[in-house]
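lol forgot to send this yesterday, sorry. struct tokens for the thing we talked abt
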């Protein structure tokens, strides 16, 4: 028994030293900053080869440079996830470079807030296009490389493959001024569950992460002036009167600063990335069709 325990301990130690995602290939959209950037750096640290995609190719390349400087492997792909040619271009480059695909992290997105009765069609359409249509099309394009027949055995080595779609508590509970965003983020929950049921027999897991308050440019003060350009139109990001992204928000620990969050603070992009890593890793090998709420206890 002692010899067996030592063998198991040695195997776990060796696996950990190589990283949770050793040799695996991951596409991460919206990976030039915020949660996506943290995710790309963390996945690379855990041994993954990372395809860093973002609307801003120069910023994506900076993330790739950072990964390579740390001894990792990554490539940058610039472009709009909603563009018709984007999915096939990313998949083709991934397969050409690395020969396989293990994970897709559909993280790219932004907010275009309006009260429901003042929301124009274009504000509705672009949010649905980026948050629902784009992930669907990227996953569909990856089908030939992920819907691969495997021998369904309880033990033995199987290729670790997963789809993780990023949602929000807004998609679970709704939010004032975000009818478009709420609808889109609710839709990806259904998308993940459907992928789980259709692709489970191919040993592909599909899960959703629903984030609460994470300190990114989407939750920073709108007065800071962060914008994103969509179809030639500048869309302001952030929350009116929100907390400063530059300072990481209020760090006083006062519960009044973050009402409704038992941990009395916002989450960091690194903490958000860690939850995505968990779902992608073998630690979650029997987790599929699940929506993981990462909220600091908010909403319980």
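and heres what i got for the seq, position by position
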């Amino acid at each position: 028994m002692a010899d067996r325990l030592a063998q198991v301990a040695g195997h776990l130690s060796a696996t950990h030293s190589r990283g949770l995602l050793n040799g695996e290939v991951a596409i991460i959209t919206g990976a030039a900053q915020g949660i996506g950037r943290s995710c790309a750096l963390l996945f690379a640290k855990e041994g993954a080869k990372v395809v860093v995609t973002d609307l801003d190719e120069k910023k994506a390349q900076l993330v790739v440079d950072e990964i390579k400087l740390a001894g990792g492997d990554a490539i940058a792909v610039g472009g709009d996830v909603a563009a018709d040619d984007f999915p096939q271009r990313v998949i083709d480059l991934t397969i050409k470079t690395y020969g396989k695909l293990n994970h897709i992290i559909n993280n790219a997105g932004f907010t275009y807030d309006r009260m429901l009765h003042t929301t124009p069609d274009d504000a509705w359409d672009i949010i649905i296009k980026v948050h629902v249509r784009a992930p669907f099309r990227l996953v569909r394009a990856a089908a030939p490389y992920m819907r691969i027949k495997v021998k369904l055995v309880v033990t033995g080595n199987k290729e670790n493959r997963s789809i993780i779609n990023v949602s929000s508590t807004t998609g679970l509970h709704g939010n004032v001024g975000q009818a478009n965003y709420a609808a889109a983020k609710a839709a990806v929950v259904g998308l993940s569950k459907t992928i789980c049921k259709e692709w489970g027999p191919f040993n592909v897991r599909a899960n959703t992460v629903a984030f609460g308050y994470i300190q990114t440019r989407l939750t920073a003060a709108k007065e800071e002036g962060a914008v994103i350009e969509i179809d030639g139109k500048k869309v302001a990001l952030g929350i009116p009167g929100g907390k400063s992204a530059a300072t990481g928000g209020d760090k006083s620990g006062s519960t009044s600063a973050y009402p409704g969050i038992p941990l009395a603070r916002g989450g960091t992009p690194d903490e958000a990335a860690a939850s995505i890593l968990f779902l992608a890793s073998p630690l979650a090998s029997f987790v599929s069709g699940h929506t993981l709420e990462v909220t600091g206890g908010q909403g319980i």
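The longest helix spans residues 121-146. anyway ping me if u want another try
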